[in-house]
C-alpha cells in the first residue's frame, strides 16, 4: 500500500476493538495516513436522541421545523457542530481527534471515549504523524461498517473479534464474518487476548 492511506478501525470500545486499534497503530499506520475510528450505535427508538444522524453516518435528513433548525443552529454557533446545508439534508462533519478528546462534545453523540483508546490514538497522532478522525453511524453494525468502506473510501479495514463460539455465531451472527464477506476492501480481523 502507498502512503496517505485511508485506514478504518471498527471501534465499539470492547477488548477486541481495542486490540484491533493497537495492532493498527503498531503494525499498519504510517506517517501521512488517516485512521478512521468507525463507531456504530444501534438505532434508538427515541427519535430525539439521534435526530441529527442516521443512514450514512453523522448525518440525518431533518424536517425544517423551526425548533429543530434552532437546536441545530445553536450547536453550530457554539462550535459543537460543523454543518453545511445540501438540499434537504444537514451534514455533520467528521469528528477530529481534538474534539474526540472532549467529553462535552462526545456527550452530544452519546459516546463515552475510553481512556485506553484515547492514549492509543494520541500516541499514533504524535509519534507516527497520523491523522485521526472519528465517524459515527447509527444502525446495524454489519451493514454500517460495510457502508463506511465506500463512504470513507477506505483502503483497508481492521476490526476485532468478539470470539463467539459456533452456536453463538449461528444464533446472533458474526459482525466480523459479515464484513469480511461483504466489504469492498481488504479486512483484517484481530483476535483479542
Description:
This is UspA domain-containing protein. The chain crosses the membrane at residues 75-97. Keywords: Membrane, Transmembrane, Transmembrane helix. This protein has 193 residues and is of the alpha/beta class. It has one domain: Rossmann fold, CATH 3.40.50. The chain has 8 helices and 9 strands. It has a 6-stranded mixed beta sheet, sandwiched between helices. A 3-stranded antiparallel beta sheet has the order 3-5-4, with no helix packed on it.
Structural class: alpha/beta
> Roughly what percent helix?
25-40%
- Briefly note the CATH topology name: Rossmann fold
Calculate the mean pLDDT score and round it: 76
Approximate shape: globular
What is the succession of H and E elements? Answer: EHEEHEEEHHHEHEHHE
| Reported CATH architecture | 3-Layer(aba) Sandwich
Tags for this model:
alpha/beta, Rossmann fold, three-stranded antiparallel β-sheet, Rossmann-like_a/b/a_fold, 193 residues, Universal_stress_UspA, transmembrane helix, transmembrane, 38% helix, six-stranded mixed β-sheet
Question: How is this structure best summarized?
Answer:
This protein has 193 residues and is of the alpha/beta class. It has 8 helices and 9 strands.
